[in-house]
From TrEMBL:
<protein>
    <submittedName>
        <fullName>EAL domain-containing protein</fullName>
    </submittedName>
</protein>
<feature type="domain" description="EAL">
    <location>
        <begin position="23"/>
        <end position="282"/>
    </location>
</feature>
Length: 284
């Protein structure tokens, strides 16, 4: 679609012009943001469904555009990928997340894991174990407190190579989870070949456990139960994302899901605001 803007006919389309101008402006702003380091991290709690305590947090990148305000990552991450700057952003996210997690430890707070999202492009174009090793060394964070969230798309390409990289990461002590599990196009065969620790049940599935009238929706509920069972049979943890209601949390606990994350517990917050959520029961 990028090439359409260069095509002579399209030049006469005012909407197309407006759109490609907007995109160019956004690209320039993003390049600027990468140079000036205009990103922040927000942290969303993961709760252990047995203890009710914080078991970890997921780091989520935030970009404050000087004029447009907060630009959602779902918009600028794909742009960053197409511009070839995703690995720069990704490395900053990783380093900052490790630094922040170590700072919580230095404050004497109970240890929690920090999870960092790694895009497929970043995974394939950089030496991830080397970047992770540096981030851990420079921050002083113990490797077992770092988790990487990878989407199924990472695991689909160059399977043997990817499995090797994941083995290296796990040998360092880093944990690996599969993000948005069930939404990719993958066959399940990769699961037994990939050294991983957890499956994250996508928000769309969690949303389908109950119908709008509050009744259990048979199909939706059985998909979620099946993913939990699958995870446990493979000796993996099951983590549900996008949990918004007490009913969803109770259902997930009753089905043996290990951890939940969602607006019910907490929205993503700053590293400072997270401090009040440590060391207490977070389940309603
Ligand atoms: P994700 O990894 O699936 O992250 C979860 C997203 O769901 C976050 O959106 C979070 O704010 C949102 N969320 C959490 N709980 C709830 C809930 O109860 N209800 C609803 N409706 N939403 C909930 P966010 O922060 O806008 O991030 C969107 C996506 O952008 C992420 O999806 C992830 O794929 C990507 N992303 C975010 N940060 C990074 C990053 O540092 N690096 C990379 N590569 N991707 C990132
Ligand atoms: Ca994630
Ligand atoms: Ca998701
Ligand atoms: Ca995602």
């Amino acid at each position: 679609a990028k090439d359409l803007g260069r095509n002579g006919f399209q030049l006469y389309s005012p909407t197309m012009n407006a759109r490609s101008f907007e995109r160019l402006a956004m690209e320039a702003a993003l390049r600027h943001a990468v140079r000036r380091n205009e990103f922040r991290l927000a942290y969303q709690v993961k709760v252990d469904l047995v203890s009710g305590r914080m078991s970890g947090v997921e780091a989520l990148v935030r970009w404050h555009h000087p004029e447009a305000g907060l630009v959602p990552p779902a918009e600028f991450i794909p742009l960053a990928e197409s511009m070839g700057v995703i690995s720069d952003i990704g490395e900053w996210v990783l380093r900052e997340a490790c630094r922040q997690c170590q700072q919580w430890r230095d404050l004497g707070l109970p240890p929690v894991r920090v999870a960092v999202n790694v895009s497929a492009l970043q995974f394939h174009e950089t030496d991830i174990p080397a970047v992770v090793g540096r981030a851990l060394r420079d921050s002083g964070l113990p490797p077992h407190l770092l988790e990487l969230e990878l989407t199924e798309s990472v695991l689909m390409q160059r399977v043997d190579e990817v499995a090797g990289v994941l083995r290296d990461l796990r040998a360092m002590g880093v944990r690996i989870s599969i993000d948005d599990f069930g939404t990719g196009y993958s066959s399940l065969s990769y699961l037994k070949r990939m050294p991983i620790d957890a499956l994250k049940i996508d928000r769309s599935f969690v949303n389908d456990i109950f119908s709008d009238d509050g009744q259990v929706a048979e199909e939706g509920a059985s998909i979620v139960s099946t993913i939990i069972t699958l995870a446990h049979n493979l000796r993996l943890k099951a983590i549900a994302e996008g949990v918004e209601t007490v009913a969803q949390a109770l259902f997930l606990r009753q089905r043996g899901c290990d951890e939940v994350q969602g607006f019910l517990i907490s929205r993503p917050v700053s590293g400072e605001d997270l401090i009040s959520l440590f060391d207490r029961n977070l389940l309603p």
